[in-house]
C-alpha cells in the first residue's frame, strides 16, 4: 500500500516537474529568441555604426598613404633606401595602432558575453534544473527519487550550465581569433599599398634623378655652350675655319642628349593577395609584410647602392687614377771607344750609355670617381684630355681616359666641339693676310696665305738683287729686304687691331735679332768654312760636315733663345722654356740633316776629281741631289716628314744679276705619316725637273 502510494506520489510529482520543465523551457526558449532578436538588432546597429567609422578611418588612411608617399620620396631622395624602408615599417605600425582604437573586437565580444549570461539564466530555471533528476528517477534512481520526492523541486543542473559556459567561451575565443586575423589582413593590405607606394616613390626618385642630370646637361650645352635643344638632340652650327674667300666656315654639330636610366619594373614575389592572406594567421601575415619590405629595399639598393656601397671605403674603391707617362733618357753606364787620331795614334775615350725609360709625370695626375649602384655606373665620370691633344686627330683620339657612362659620352662631344670652335674662332679673328686662300681641310694641296706668298716673293727678290754683291754687304742687304715685308705686316697687324704695338714690335724685333744672329754666326764660322772648302780628301769632307753642323746648331740655339721671349699685357716680358726646348730640338734635327747632306754629297764629289766643265757640274748636281735626299731620309726618321722641292723659279728662266738661274724653291711635296700633301714653300730636297735633268745628263 505504501509502495502504491509512493508510486502514485512519484508519478504526480514527476508529472508536475515535467509540466513545469516544459513551461520553463518554453518560456526560456521565448526569452532566448527575444534576446537573440534584441542582440541581432543591437549588432546590426553597432555594425552599421562601426562600418561608418571604419569607412572614415579608411578614407583617412588613404590620405595618410598619399602623405606617406610624399614623405617616403623625400626621405629616399635625402637619405637613401634604408631610411625609406624604416619609414615604411614605422607607418605600418602606426596604422595598426590606429585600427586598434576602433574597438570593433571589443563590442562584438561583449555581445557574445551577453548571450552566455542569457543562456545561464535560462538554464537556472527550476523546471529545467530538476529535469535531469526527474529523468534519473525514471531510470530507477531510488536515492534521487526519495530526495526529489521528499524535497520537491531543488538542486542545480551543473553539467548543463557548464556546457553552455564552455560553448560561450569557445565562441568568444574563436571570434577574437577571427577578428585578430581579419585585423592582420587589413594591416597587410595597408602594407601592400605602402609597398606599392614605396615602389612608386622609387620610380619617382629615379625619374627625378634623370631629370636633374638632364637639366645639368642642358645647363652645360644650352646655357654655357650656346647649343640648341631640338627634341632629344643638342645641335649647333660651329665655326671651325676661316678663309680668304669664306670668312666663317661652319659645321653642323649634333649630339644625342642624355639617355635616361631605365628602371626595371619591380614585381614583388611575396604574395600579399587577399586569397593568400585569408589562409594565414596574424604572425604569418606579419612575416610576409617583412619579406615584402625586404624586396623593396633590395630593389632600391640595386639602383642606388647599399649603405656599404655609399660608405667612404666604397667610394675610395670607385676612384680611378689617370696617369700620364713620358719617356726620358737616363744614363746607365759608360763604354770605351777606341779610335785613331790624324797622326795615326790610338786614342781611347769613354762615352756615356743611355737608355729610354717611362716615368709618370705626377703633376698631370687626375682622379675620377662615380656613384654607387646601377644608376651611378650609368652616369659615370667625365673624360680626361691628353697633355697635348691634336684636334685634327678626331674625336676618338684626344683622350688620356675616355670617361664612363653618359657623362663620359656627352662631355667627350662637348669638349671636342668646344676645341674645334675655339680653333675656328681663332681662325676667324686672324687678319685676312694670314688666312688661307680657300678651305683646304682634307685636301692634299694646302692653300697659301698672303703673308706666306709675300715672304717667298721678297726672298726671291732679295736673292736676285743682292746675290751678285757678295760679302757682308750682300748679306746685310738681303737681310734688310727680307725684313721689309715683316715690317709692313707688323704695321698692318697693329693698324687692324690684331696686335698691340708691344706684341708686334716684339715679334718684328725677334725676327730682326734672329737675322742678325744668322749673319753673325755665319761670319764667325766663315774663316773655318773657307779653309775647309780648300781642304781636299776625306778630312776636308769631315771638317766641312762638322763645322756645318756646329754652325747650324749654334744658330738654331741662339734663335731659339730669342724666340722664347714672350710678352703679354698682364705679365709683361717673359721667357718660355718649353718654346726654347722645342727650338733646340728642331735645331738638332736641322743640324743632323745638314750634316748628312754635306757628308753624303762631299764623299760623292771625291770621285769626280779629274772631271771638268759640264760633266763635272752635272755630276756635282747629282751628288748634291743624293745628299739632299739622304738628309730628308734622316728628317723622316726623326720627324716623320720627307720633303721635296718639286718646283723652283729656275724652271721659269728666272735669273739673278749674274745671269744664273734662281734655284729657290716654290712648291713643296710632303711625304709623311699623314699621307701626301703639297704647299707653296721653299724647303725640301731639290727634285725639280731641271735639277733631275741636269743630274741625269
Describe the structure using short key phrases.
alpha+beta, 15 strands, 697 residues, 19 helices
Low-confidence stretches: 75-94, 99-110, 126-132, 134-160
Tell me, briefly, the overall form: elongated
Number of helices: 19
How many distinct beta strands? 15
Return the average pLDDT rounded to an integer: 78
Rounded radius of gyration (Å): 54 Å
Structural class: alpha+beta
Report what the structure shows:
With 697 residues, the chain is an alpha+beta fold. Helices cover 63% and strands 14% of the residues. The strands form six sheets. The chain has a four-stranded mixed sheet with strand order 14-13-12-15. Strands 1-2-3 form a three-stranded antiparallel sheet. Strands 4-7 form a two-stranded antiparallel ribbon.
SSE inventory with pairings:
Elements: H1 2-79, H2 81-100, H3 104-123, H4 126-129, H5 131-138, H6 142-151, H7 158-224, E1 228-230, E2 233-241, E3 249-256, H8 274-277, H9 282-304, H10 312-317, E4 319-322, E5 325-340, E6 346-360, E7 366-369, H11 373-379, E8 384-385, E9 399-401, H12 405-428, H13 450-466, H14 471-495, H15 501-533, H16 537-563, E10 565-568, E11 572-575, H17 577-605, H18 613-639, E12 641-648, E13 665-672, E14 675-680, E15 685-686, H19 689-696
Parallel strand pairs: 12-15
Antiparallel strand pairs: 1-2, 2-3, 4-7, 5-6, 8-9, 10-11, 12-13, 13-14
Amino acid at each position: 500500500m505504501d509502495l502504491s502510494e509512493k508510486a502514485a506520489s512519484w508519478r504526480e510529482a514527476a508529472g508536475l516537474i515535467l509540466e513545469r520543465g516544459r513551461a520553463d523551457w518554453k518560456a526560456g526558449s521565448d526569452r532566448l529568441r527575444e534576446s537573440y532578436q534584441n542582440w541581432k538588432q543591437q549588432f546590426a546597429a553597432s555594425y552599421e555604426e562601426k562600418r561608418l567609422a571604419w569607412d572614415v578611418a579608411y578614407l583617412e588612411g588613404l590620405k595618410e598613404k598619399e602623405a606617406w608617399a610624399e614623405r617616403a620620396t623625400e626621405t629616399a631622395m635625402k637619405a637613401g633606401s634604408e631610411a625609406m624602408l624604416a619609414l615604411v615599417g614605422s607607418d605600418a605600425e602606426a596604422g595598426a595602432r590606429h585600427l586598434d582604437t576602433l574597438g570593433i573586437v571589443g563590442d562584438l565580444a561583449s555581445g557574445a558575453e551577453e548571450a552566455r549570461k542569457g543562456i545561464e539564466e535560462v538554464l537556472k530555471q527550476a523546471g529545467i534544473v530538476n529535469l535531469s533528476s526527474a529523468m534519473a528517477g525514471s531510470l530507477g534512481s531510488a536515492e534521487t527519487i526519495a530526495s526529489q520526492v521528499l524535497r520537491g523541486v531543488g538542486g542545480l543542473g551543473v553539467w548543463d550550465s557548464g556546457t553552455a559556459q564552455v560553448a560561450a567561451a569557445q565562441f568568444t575565443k574563436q571570434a577574437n581569433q577571427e577578428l585578430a586575423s581579419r585585423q592582420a589582413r587589413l594591416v597587410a593590405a595597408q602594407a601592400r599599398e605602402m609597398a606599392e607606394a614605396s615602389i612608386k616613390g622609387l620610380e619617382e626618385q629615379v625619374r627625378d634623378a634623370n631629370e636633374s642630370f638632364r637639366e645639368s646637361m642642358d645647363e652645360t650645352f644650352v646655357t654655357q655652350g650656346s647649343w640648341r635643344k631640338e627634341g632629344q638632340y643638342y645641335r649647333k652650327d660651329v665655326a671651325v675655319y676661316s678663309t680668304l674667300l669664306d670668312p666663317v666656315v661652319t659645321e653642323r654639330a649634333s649630339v644625342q642628349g642624355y639617355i635616361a636610366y631605365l628602371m626595371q619594373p619591380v614585381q614583388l614575389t611575396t604574395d600579399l593577395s587577399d586569397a593568400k592572406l585569408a589562409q594565414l594567421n596574424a604572425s604569418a601575415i606579419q612575416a610576409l609584410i617583412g619579406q615584402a619590405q625586404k624586396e623593396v629595399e633590395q630593389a632600391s639598393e640595386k639602383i642606388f647602392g647599399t649603405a656599404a656601397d655609399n660608405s667612404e671605403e666604397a667610394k675610395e674603391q670607385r676612384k680611378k687614377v689617370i696617369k700620364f707617362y713620358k719617356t726620358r733618357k737616363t744614363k746607365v753606364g759608360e763604354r770605351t771607344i777606341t779610335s785613331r787620331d790624324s797622326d795615326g795614334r790610338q786614342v781611347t775615350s769613354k762615352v756615356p750609355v743611355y737608355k729610354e725609360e717611362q716615368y709618370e709625370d705626377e703633376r698631370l695626375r687626375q682622379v675620377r670617381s662615380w656613384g654607387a649602384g646601377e644608376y651611378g655606373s650609368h652616369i659615370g665620370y667625365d673624360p680626361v684630355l691628353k697633355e697635348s691633344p691634336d684636334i685634327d686627330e678626331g674625336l676618338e683620339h684626344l683622350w688620356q681616359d675616355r670617361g664612363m657612362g653618359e657623362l663620359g659620352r656627352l662631355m667627350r662631344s662637348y669638349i671636342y666641339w668646344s676645341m674645334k670652335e675655339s680653333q675656328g674662332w681663332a681662325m676667324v679673328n686672324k687678319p685676312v693676310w694670314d688666312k688661307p686662300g680657300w678651305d683646304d681641310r682634307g685636301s692634299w694641296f694646302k692653300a697659301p696665305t698672303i703673308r706666306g706668298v709675300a715672304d717667298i716673293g721678297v726672298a726671291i727678290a732679295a736673292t736676285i738683287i743682292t746675290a751678285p754683291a757678295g760679302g757682308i754687304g750682300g748679306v746685310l742687304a738681303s737681310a734688310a729686304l727680307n725684313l721689309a715685308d715683316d715690317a709692313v705686316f707688323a704695321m698692318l697687324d697693329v693698324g687692324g687691331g690684331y696686335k698691340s704695338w708691344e706684341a708686334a714690335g716684339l715679334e718684328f724685333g725677334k725676327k730682326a735679332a734672329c737675322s742678325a744672329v744668322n749673319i753673325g754666326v755665319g761670319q764667325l764660322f766663315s774663316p773655318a768654312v773657307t779653309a775647309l772648302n780648300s781642304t781636299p780628301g776625306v778630312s776636308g769632307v769631315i771638317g766641312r760636315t762638322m763645322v756645318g753642323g756646329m754652325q747650324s746648331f749654334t744658330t738654331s740655339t741662339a734663335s731659339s733663345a730669342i724666340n722664347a721671349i714672350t710678352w703679354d699685357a698682364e705679365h709683361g716680358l717673359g721667357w718660355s722654356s718649353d718654346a726654347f726646348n722645342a727650338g733646340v730640338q728642331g735645331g738638332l734635327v736641322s743640324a743632323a740633316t745638314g750634316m748628312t747632306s754635306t757628308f753624303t754629297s762631299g764623299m760623292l764629289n771625291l770621285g769626280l776629281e779629274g772631271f771638268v766643265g759640264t760633266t763635272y757640274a752635272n755630276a756635282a748636281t747629282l751628288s748634291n741631289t743624293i745628299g739632299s735626299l739622304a738628309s730628308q731620309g734622316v728628317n723622316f726618321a726623326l720627324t716623320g716628314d720627307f720633303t721635296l722641292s718639286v718646283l723652283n723659279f729656275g724652271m721659269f728662266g728666272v735669273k739673278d744679276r749674274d745671269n744664273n738661274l734662281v734655284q729657290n724653291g716654290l712648291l713643296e711635296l710632303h711625304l709623311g705619316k699623314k699621307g701626301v700633301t703639297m704647299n707653296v714653300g721653299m724647303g725640301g730636297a731639290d727634285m725639280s725637273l731641271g735639277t733631275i735633268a741636269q743630274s741625269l745628263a
